[in-house]
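Batch job 17 of 40 flagged for manual review because the log was empty.
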Amino acid sequence: MYPPLGPNLRARVLARMHAHPAADTTVELPEWYFRHWHFGPGGYLTGVGIRWYDWVVRRAYYQLHEGGAHAAVLNALGEAGCRKVVEVGCGSGRLLRSLVASRQFDAVTGLEISPLLVDRARRAAPGVSVRQSDGTLDAVAEAEADAVVMAHVVGHVPPAVAGTLLAQALRLAGDRGRVALVEHAWHPLDLGRARIRRDERFHAGMQRLIVLSN
């Protein structure tokens, strides 16, 4: 796990987050989020940390083949007939933009913890509902989704958080929906009792797409 923010830095970034125009002051940031994620200064709660994520970390995650991962997700959800998609941990909004551009879906929603990333995602995918979240799917109604996408999320959060997210995503997906995960192939994942509909590797075996249902 990445090192936690020190108390002084934590207090400063929290004050800035609450004052950010994209912030939802009713949302409480989860304790596990206050870390120097991928050793970026201030994690995803400072401008420098966000730029580090977008310019370096994101590209490393996808080995510069982000479009291929997006295409795999779109194909899987399209085959399943999904129409309403929620992306958890939408980051700077690139997958949201691909989901909208495909014209496969009636509704696309993004959830992100950092107000800085909420702002970036809104600018990347104009017209998409991007909300600040507390790291859960508690605020998403069942009628809003028949598919949940999490790209490089489940393998990076604490195991208890990952288990909660998966359970909530499967609940939202319902009997006919899908949960699509993009992860590093080496990340161990506890999928519980979910039914695995697809499990494929791409980008020289480094990336993994897992599609789940109830």
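Reviewer: the log was empty due to a logging misconfiguration, but the result itself is present. The chain is about 35% helix and 20% strand. Unflagging and moving on to job 18.
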